[in-house]
Amino acid sequence: MRIDLNSDLGESFGRWELGDDQALLSIVTSANVACGFHAGDPSVLRRTTSEAAARGVAVGAHVSYRDLAGFGRRFVDVPPAELTDEVLYQIGALSAFTRLAGDRVRYVKPHGALYNTIVHHEEQAAAVVAAVRAFDPGLPVLGLPGSRFLRLAEEAGLPTHREAFADRAYTPEGVLVSRREPGAVLHDPEEIAQRCLRIAHGEPVEAVDGTRIRVEADSLCVHGDSPGAVDIARAVAARLRAEGVTVAPFTGRNA
């Protein structure tokens, strides 16, 4: 049994620091690195990709709406053609730094509001798919199981991978509970680790209303900006390995 453990990294900006990237890079197997549109400046991107490459951590482009002030967590009604260009721009920027580090962008994962929007929004999902295909028609994408984004990506011939969230609550429909709702973010490392083990085993987990849902996943995400993110990631990785689950990049970065 094998599963990836990813985290959102490279989200500091200028003198504003967010998260403990160095500690998380010693634990996770894939890094969703901000590309400058919701967070991250050029120096942060270069430093994060360099450290990831040195540790053998797979780097993914964490693409977003152009929304620094809102941290990419607000919907933007951007025209599809413009969204394609903006996503392509972000992948290209991160690619420059991964190449300097002797590596390459291994996958693309949308961030925040864009991630949630393209679960259902056909035009924006197609726009993101078009950007990835334009950059590299063989580049994998990471997204929510059952989303329009993954369906359109698969139809376009892109390798698709399913993601579950270690530290976020789910609705009975299998989508993320809005951060504006109580209980949307989970905090207890041991409880989260047990939940992740159930996901890795293909067993059902509790939705926010107590119903049982099954979340299929190739990768588990711990948000780098969550309080206690390092402790959560460490607990998840330890529990998985203790139960015989191999923790490794879904892209085969270390294969």
Automatic annotation (TrEMBL):
<keyword id="KW-0378">Hydrolase</keyword>
<keyword id="KW-0547">Nucleotide-binding</keyword>
<comment type="subunit">
    <text>Forms a complex composed of PxpA, PxpB and PxpC.</text>
</comment>
<comment type="function">
    <text>Catalyzes the cleavage of 5-oxoproline to form L-glutamate coupled to the hydrolysis of ATP to ADP and inorganic phosphate.</text>
</comment>
<dbReference type="InterPro" id="IPR011330">
    <property type="entry name" value="Glyco_hydro/deAcase_b/a-brl"/>
</dbReference>
<dbReference type="GO" id="GO:0005524">
    <property type="term" value="F:ATP binding"/>
</dbReference>
<dbReference type="Pfam" id="PF03746">
    <property type="entry name" value="LamB_YcsF"/>
</dbReference>
<dbReference type="InterPro" id="IPR005501">
    <property type="entry name" value="LamB/YcsF/PxpA-like"/>
</dbReference>
<keyword id="KW-0067">ATP-binding</keyword>
<dbReference type="GO" id="GO:0005975">
    <property type="term" value="P:carbohydrate metabolic process"/>
</dbReference>
<comment type="similarity">
    <text>Belongs to the LamB/PxpA family.</text>
</comment>
<protein>
    <recommendedName>
        <fullName>5-oxoprolinase subunit A</fullName>
        <ecNumber>3.5.2.9</ecNumber>
    </recommendedName>
</protein>
<dbReference type="GO" id="GO:0017168">
    <property type="term" value="F:5-oxoprolinase (ATP-hydrolyzing) activity"/>
</dbReference>
